[in-house]
Amino acid sequence: MYEPIRTKSVHTSADNADFPHRSREDELDIQLAGHLAALLAVTDELGLTADGDRIAEQIARLRTAPPARHAGRSGASSAALHRRAHALAGRALVVAASRADTAVAILAAESMDAHTAALAGAPTQTALVGTP
Questions:
Q1: Helix intervals (H) in the chain
Q2: H/E element holding 104?
């Protein structure tokens, strides 16, 4: 009465699939490197070379290759760029905290402080002081 199913079900487990699986740690590395790359682009656009170099070091550590750097100009105001950088640093901080990456968490927190100070008009010393 019923014909047997000849094809595999779409509900079969993905454990048997032929594609490579990534761990949660690998996924967080990819996500964190992406947030840092976006922060690097904004940092370079603001002309903060030393800060950009520190961010690039962390990206290179996560990706095992140095990031491509291009200071493309978006035409956005300095305040808008600082707000964008602050938001990106916040995202990086959240992922770094969940990944337990202290170096990036400190870098992101200092970046947030520097961009907050820049938005408030406070004189900033060096934006990201003291961490390796």
A1: 24-46, 49-63, 78-99, 102-120
A2: helix 102-120
For residue range 78-112, list pLDDT tens digits in order.
999 999 999 999 999 999 999 999 999 999 999 99
What's the whole-model pTM score? 0.76
Q: Phi first, then psi: what are they for 125, rounded to 5°?
A: -75, -105
Among residues 81, 75, 85, which one has the least CA distance to residue 55? 85
CA torsion through residues 50, 53, 58, 59, sign: positive
Tokens of 125: 């010393």
- Residue 100 is given by DSSP the state T
- 31 Cβ contact partners less than 8 Å away, ≥ 6 residues apart: 95
